């Protein structure tokens, strides 16, 4: 049976799928003590299709990028569930790192990253408020529009 956080997400239409397997020499997450570090998640949907490809500011809109960031956050939650078995074991979202596939003059990365940040607050309430970094990058794997990683305090 799904925990409280998953039930809250389901009520908002968010259903977690299986966590993506790593595609190179790394693992999806590492737990050390009460911290869970989750590797960067691309903006794949539940069918394994990228939500948005290409560069923000050069064909990809802020709205599309925000939806992609939200998809990355859903994938972070799937990794947490794989690691812990229950999202209710998240004590706090500590930090999110956002990587925005950006045109050189694109300046709205923080607006795009709100797609991921907003989902964490929707899922965890005040425990979902976090520190954050958003960086525009020249490219991402598979030409994904977004990648997000995270650090979580867990019980």
CATH superfamily: RutC-like
What is the CATH level 1 assignment? Alpha Beta
CATH topology title:
60s Ribosomal Protein L30, Chain: A
Under the CATH scheme, which architecture would be assigned?
2-Layer Sandwich
User: How far do the termini sit from each other?
Assistant: 19 Å
**Helices and strands, in N-to-C order?**
HEEEEHEHEE
Shape: globular
Tell me about this structure:
- The strands form two sheets. The protein has a five-stranded mixed beta sheet. A two-stranded parallel sheet has the order 3-4.
- It has helices at residues 4-11, 62-84, 109-124; strands spanning 29-32, 35-42, 55-56, 59-60, 90-101, 131-137, 146-154.
- It has a single domain (4-154), classed as RutC-like (60s Ribosomal Protein L30, Chain: A, 2-Layer Sandwich).
- The longest helix has 23 residues, at 62-84.
- The radius of gyration is 14 Å and the shape is globular.
- 30% of the residues lie in helices and 28% in strands.
